[in-house]
Fold:
Amino acid sequence: MPSFSNTRTAVINADTAAIHALINDFHKWEGWSPWEKLDPQIKRTYSGAAEGVGAFYAWEGNKKVGQGSMEITSSTPSQIELDLKFIVPFEADNKTTFTLTPAGTGTEVAWTMSGERNILFAVMGKLFFDKAIGKDFDKGLASLKELAEQ
Structure:
């Protein structure tokens, strides 16, 4: 199956620790995740660790947000890795990585999602999904920037 990787970056005028705290705790994603705003009735379930490795978040929402889960599998001061599972509108297992790199007086944040797609989804991904995901990542990074810089 063909693999894919989609990355967006932003420079945020905050230190890495402040940004790390906003990503490393799923409870704080409500303040910046682009998908949290698409369904005011979204059902959230938190379990496992309160934050960091072992923290688990599942969601179920309208057709815009679908259903799935995330678990933090690695967390260092410069990188957070997640296992991301989509159930609805389609099934997929992906990896998500946030890389935090000092940049001048701020931090460059790189948000990457990668995985494998069957042939049909590989074609559709190139035509539709990658652009849509990229736009969502850009919105999320802009919200993360706004929140971290407050």
User: Anything to note?
Assistant: The first helix runs from residue 16 to 24. DSSP finds two helices and seven strands in the chain. The mean pLDDT is 90.
